[in-house]
Amino acid sequence: MNNPLGLGLVYAGPDIAWTIARDVFVGASKVAVYSAHNGSKLINKGDISSDELGVHIEAKEDGSVVNKAGASIFGATGVTTGMVASRDMTVVNHGEIFGKELAGVSATDVSGFNLRNDGDIFGAQAGVYTQTGHPDSQSGPTIKNAGHIHSDVYGIYAQAIPGLTATVVNKAGGVIEGEVQAIRTTPGHLALDNRGKIKGDVFSAAESDKVVNRGKIKGEVFLNGGDDVYRSKDGKAGLVHGGDGNDKLHAGGARDKFVFDTKLDAASNVDIVKHFDSAKDTVFLDLSIFAALTGPGALAASEFHKGKQAADADDHVIYDRTTGALAYDPDGNGDIAQTLFANIGKGLHLDSSAFTVVA
Predict the structure, then answer these.
(1) d(CA 185, CA 249)
(2) Arithmetic mean of pLDDT, 204-223
(3) How far apart are the C-alpha atoms of 250 and 217, rounded to whole Å?
(4) CB–CB of 135/162 below 8 Å?
(5) Is the pTM here over 0.90, yes or no?
(6) Which of 187, 235, 344, 357 has a Cα at 20 to 30 A from 256?
(7) CA-to-CA dists, residue 105 to 52, 55, 210, angstroms
(8) What are 343's strand-pairing partners?
(9) pLDDT tens digits, one per residue of 85-141
């Protein structure tokens, strides 16, 4: 099925629903299924293929694509929606969506994009790419995954105007992976609830984020600026970088590893660490910030001190057991004042073994 413009199935007007039956193939050189009309609905039970775009819904609102189990959509980009300040676009995948050059699923200039996946979505550059950039946009994307979203570069790449939130729910059994980063949001907020597996780093830009990890993150978590929340519900993860801001970092039943690697500021960059267990959890201190420490490696016992302030010249990491305050003093009991950088909980049996210095 192909016309001189390289299009296959073309919607003739608004509010039309098409079903491609099982064992039916729709192919075209440019776009296999195309609509420029609102209310376009597609249910695919067959196979869709194009050299460029498998399915392209270029409409203002209320478009949906449902790819059934056993069905496939193939193209340089598998499915694209939006591109005209759109809203309320939905993609549901139970089968396979494959983007051989760009994205598996791409939603550009869409407010209120929803993706539900329990099948397989692959894109060479991004499994899922979303961009919410129109000034009138009211909400960021919502991505719920119980299947496999993967890419050679980014598993999920969400761009939104500041103030909007990209919501990612990775359910039990779900896998999100990217060889560069598994999840990247910039700018905008990230709200991540992980109960499955994330293979690769999680990176969010300089806005307040919330990550709840009940599963496994085989990579590092970079929350960067903003007042972020990281909550480990017995999930496993690599290094967790709170970044700038007054963050809340909740340790869980697994081994949690919290990194402090941004400029200290007792007013705007003090993290609260909850449920820290010095028998299994670790605080990582970056030498670029904590320059007086010996390292890299385990924090020297002589550089750790319990009390309200340093007692001698090489007391650099100060833990106040009565308040839980954790401070850094670059010259010990010299003239330079110590700087509060975290509250790790009061009454802990804390010593230098809970700290590692990294370069």
Answers:
(1) 20
(2) 96
(3) 15
(4) no
(5) yes
(6) 187
(7) 13, 10, 24
(8) 272, 325
(9) 678 899 999 999 999 999 999 999 888 899 999 999 999 999 999 998 776 677 889
Can you give the pLDDT at residue 88?
Answer: 83
CB-based contacts of 4: which residues, under 8 Å, 6+ apart? none
> What's the full length of the chain, in residues?
359
170: buried, middle or exposed (CB in 10 Å: 19+, 13-18, 0-12)?
buried
Does position 1 have pLDDT exceeding 60, yes or no? no
Chain centre to alpha carbon of residue 236: 15
Q: Are 88 and 115 in contact, with CB atoms under 8 Å apart?
A: no
Domain boundaries, given as residue ranges, for the chain: 7-238
Residue 290, CA distances (Å) to 9, 69, 74, 316, 331 in order: 62, 54, 51, 9, 11
What one-letter code names the amino acid at 192? Answer: L
In the structure encoding, which two tokens stand for residue 314, read together?
């090489």
